[in-house]
Write a structure and sequence with these properties.
Two copies of one chain form a homodimer. Helix content of chain A is 45%, strand content 22%. By secondary structure, chain A is α/β, with parallel strands linked by helices. The first copy, chain A, has a five-stranded mixed beta sheet, with helices on both faces. Strand 2 of chain A pairs antiparallel with strand 2 of chain B, so a sheet runs across the interface.
């Protein structure tokens, strides 16, 4: 994992890109992982732990009607979280994670383990949907690991294009 | 550690208190630990990962002159972070952690491992100053563990008084 963190860090530095995060189910774990790398302040500004819906609205800029219409765990809310944190923190990239870590809160349409990860860059947003298997903390860790892979692949792809 | 998390959770629920966090050197680790406990949304609203000084100012409400006068790692900044997040998130308690996790950034007056933890409740603020020994991630983990102990002891003390 530390290798993936370092690869992501090196790519961000090389491309002179800055990053902010907006986390719901992971509660700060993704930010904690980013800042494990010494010198992460070069590219990481910080983020919002948007655990309650009220914070998703008031700080992350998610619209009430999006929350009501699609639910807090949805691609639509993930997109608004990523765009909102990017805008508020004035960073090149904004990453959002929202999901159901369990053990309760799952439904037949959105079972425990459902996670949406979204990366906003410029006017684009890139979204992934996953259903992770495991206990609460395994799901949260899997979501963070997947978010790092998502980010690093996006940075590598941009490099090639 | 999980036992301490659960004790803190039980106390917060029993006292019907809500909590928000403002993290600098721990980068979200404290929030991640709070949300390991299922049902933490009952008392945890979220927080700000105030990694850069700009975010400490713009989101956490730390004054520019406090940052310049005392430095980002100081009791004064920790207090403004704790008060700021409590106010912005409208929670009963606000907890802030700011420190130097290293390996660089230390000085003779503020060596690597220097950490300030502050809890704001009502008009009161409670501050602790520590110098933890170890590598970057050990210092960050020690700071979070100590913040949990600080919070739980405060909740227990309030219970008795």
């Amino acid at each position: 994992m530390m290798r993936l963190l370092q690869i992501t860090a090196d790519l961000l530095i090389k491309k002179k890109l800055t990053l902010s995060v907006c986390e719901s189910c992971t509660g700060g774990m993704f930010g904690s992982m980013i800042t494990r790398v010494p010198g992460s302040s070069r590219y990481f500004s910080g983020g919002i732990i948007a655990y309650s819906n009220r914070v998703k609205e008031s700080l992350a800029g998610v619209r009430c009607k999006t929350l009501k219409g699609y639910g807090a765990v949805s691609a639509e809310v993930a997109k608004e979280m990523a765009r909102g944190v990017r805008r508020r923190f004035k960073t090149d990239l904004g990453i959002a994670i929202t999901g159901i870590a369990g053990p309760s809160g799952g439904t037949s349409k959105k079972p425990v383990g459902t996670v949406y990860i979204c990366i906003a860059e410029g006017h684009s947003v890139h979204t992934e949907h996953h259903i992770f298997i495991g206990k609460r903390d395994q799901i949260r860790k899997a979501a963070c690991a997947r978010a790092f892979r998502f980010l690093s692949l996006l940075l590598i792809r941009n490099e090639k294009s």
